[in-house]
Amino acid sequence: MAKKKWSNATAEPSAQDKPATLKDLLRPDILAGLKAQADAMKAEEQARKDAARAEAEAARKAEEKRLENDFGHLLEKSKLDWRKHK
């Protein structure tokens, strides 16, 4: 007996059979407004991250500058090998 060939005859759903998405239901002007608002929020978030990064960098530099003038810190950091400077 020969094997039966099963064909994948599943018809692909047409565009009319697909369920409607929110993008399809909204008017184009509302959709454009929402996209603009999303872009503005992303830009605002990026600006806030950049400001936080710059603030952290400034704080790090200020701390480094303060420690440069702290004799105790410099003494701890320095090597006590006096033969190098002889």
From TrEMBL:
InterPro entries noted in UniProt: DUF3886
Keywords assigned: Coiled coil
Coiled coil as UniProt keyword: yes
Pfam families: DUF3886
Ranges for region Disordered: 1-23
Coiled coil: 35-64
Protein name: DUF3886 domain-containing protein
Source organism of this protein record: Paenibacillus silvestris
